[in-house]
Structure formats: C-alpha cells, structure tokens
Design a protein that fits this description.
Distance between the termini: 23 Å
Helix content: over 70%
Strand content: under 5%
Order of helices and strands: HHHHHH
Structural class: mainly alpha
Number of helices: 6
Shape: elongated
Number of domains: 1
Length: 155
C-alpha cells in the first residue's frame, strides 16, 4: 500500500485520517461509558470498593501479559483483519455484559471474566490501529498526525 501524496494541507484535510480520528474518539468514548456501567454494576452487586479495584485489574492485566504478542500479531498479520477481529470480540464482550445484566447475577466473577476478554481484545486492537496512521497521511504530515493521536485516548 502506498500512502497519500505529500502536500501542504493540514493533517485534518485527509478524509481517511479524519475518519480514523473520529472512530478512535467515538470508540474510546463508548468504551469508557461501558466500563463505568460495568463498574457500577459490580459495585451494586458487591458494595465493595475493592471489587472495583479488581475490575480495573482484570481489564489491565491482559494488557501487561499480551502487549508484546499483540505487537507481534500486528506486524505479522493484516492489521485491518486484526482490528476487525479485535473489535468483534469487544462487541461480543459488550453483548455478554448486557446478558449478565439481564441475568441479574449475585456474584461479580462473571464480570471479571468478561473484563479480561475485553481487555485482551483492546490490547490487540491498539498496536494494529496505531500502525495504520502512516498509511493515512503523507510522510511530511506524519508528525502532526502523531500530535493529534497523542491527545486521543487509545482505541
């Protein structure tokens, strides 16, 4: 694949990059809303602040364990496919969260298991999505694209 031609336009004038930035922002917003709702549900079940800490741990721990393999997968396989699969797993996790809410569980452990799945999927989407940026903007605009990405939350 070759990137767009270099011009003097700003990085936001590239349609594909604007779409990428918009999708990253909206996806991150949705993830944050979902995590607040899950945390609220866990607290409603347990009434324990420690249980909320475990929720963060179960989402964060896969990142610690899978960061290097996720980068390797993003380098070895089609990044678009990695992103699609990762987002599909995140959507399945969101559906499972919804099912758990309707099932009215009395324990928090099912939420922790799904948070681990969700965190693993997010870990694999990050390197693959971030590596697409050089393909969306010309080389002379890449520093500006990196600056815009640095103010956006991770996908």
């Amino acid at each position: 694949m070759s990137g767009p031609r270099a011009t003097n336009r700003g990085v936001l004038s590239y349609r594909d990059y604007r779409r990428y930035l918009s999708a990253t922002f909206l996806g991150s917003l949705g993830i944050q809303i979902e995590l607040v709702a899950v945390s609220w549900q866990i607290y409603a079940i347990t009434r324990s602040p420690l249980a909320l800490g475990y929720a963060g741990l179960f989402e964060f721990l896969p990142m610690v364990l899978c960061t290097l393999p996720a980068g390797d997968v993003a380098d070895r396989f089609d990044r678009r496919l990695v992103i699609v699969i990762s987002y599909a797993v995140q959507a399945v996790a969101a559906g499972i969260f919804l099912g758990l809410v309707f099932a009215n569980p009395t324990a928090a452990w099912p939420f922790y298991a799904v948070l681990a799945l969700f965190g693993t999927a997010r870990t694999f989407s990050g390197p693959a999505a971030n590596s697409l940026v050089p393909l969306l903007v010309p080389q002379d605009q890449f520093p500006q694209a990196v600056a815009w990405n640095s103010v956006m939350p991770d996908p």
